[in-house]
Amino acid sequence: MNRSVRVLNATYEYLGEVSADRAVVLIATGSAQSTEDVIPIFPVRSKHVEIPLPRTILLAEYVYVAHRVTVTDSSRATFTGIFDRDGRQCAYCAARATTIDHVQPRSRNGPNTWGNLVACCSSCNQRKADRTPAEAGMRLLWEPKAPRRIEKVQQKIWRELSRT
Ligand SMILES: [Zn+2]
């Protein structure tokens, strides 16, 4: 069974995901509880118990997260991360992107950051060359920013919790 379960800190802060097996252990040992006890979604049968597998579990005790990584627009980004964020679409023409463009060119100290890298098709990349979008007469279809996935998941959790 490879469903994943969201884990919330005791403060309802989103921490990440664990495997269903791990979630079952956390619930069985009393380390966590389902946030949706009333909606059994997916029954889990082990040798001894049968419990509904929730989508979200809440830790019984607060876990101090010492090194929460804050990703900002000026954080360093990987090329893979940029392709993921941009869905492999060229930021200038929406064609399939195969390259990465430095919005502020590398030759002018444009950094490898979320705010300065975009996925780019090879023809746009060649056309833009060592120029800024303005100099090349090209327009970005979107503003490159640090990915907001974690924040989005957290917002969704707050929304779901406010409904119950
Ligand atoms: Zn393009």
Summarize the structure.
26% of the residues lie in helices and 20% in strands. The relative contact order is 0.15. It has 2 domains: 78 residues, no CATH class; 58 residues, no CATH class.
Task: Lay out the secondary structure.
Layout (H helix, E strand, L loop, with lengths): L3 E5 L5 E6 H9 L3 E3 L8 E3 L4 E3 L3 E4 L19 H8 L12 E4 L14 E4 L1 H7 L4 H4 L12 H15 L1
Parallel strand pairs: 1-6
Antiparallel strand pairs: 1-2, 3-6, 4-5, 7-8
Bound molecules: zinc ion.
Please give the number of β-strands: 8
Give a list of the ligands. zinc ion
**Tell me about the biggest sheet?**
4 strands, mixed
Number of helices: 5
Tell me the strand percentage band: 15-25%
Tally of separate domains = 2
Percentage of residues in helical conformation: 25-40%
The overall average pLDDT, rounded, is: 83
* Secondary-structure-derived class: alpha+beta
Order of helices and strands: EEHEEEEHEEHHH
Strand order of the largest sheet: 2-1-6-3
Rg, alpha carbons: 22 Å
Low-pLDDT residue intervals, each spanning 5 or more residues: none
Compute the separation of the termini in Å.
27 Å
Molecular shape: elongated
Question: Would you kindly provide a written description of the structure presented here, covering whatever features stand out?
Answer:
- With 164 residues, the protein is α+β, with helices and mostly antiparallel strands.
- It folds into two domains: 4-67 and 150-163, no CATH class; 79-136, no CATH class.
- The chain is built from five helices and eight strands, in the order ββαββββαββααα.
- The strands form three sheets. A four-stranded mixed β-sheet has the order 2-1-6-3, sandwiched between helices. Strands 4-5 form a two-stranded antiparallel ribbon. Strands 7-8 form a two-stranded antiparallel sheet.
- The protein starts with a strand and ends with a helix.
- 19% of the residues are buried.
- It binds zinc ion.
- The site of zinc ion has 8 residues, from helix 3.
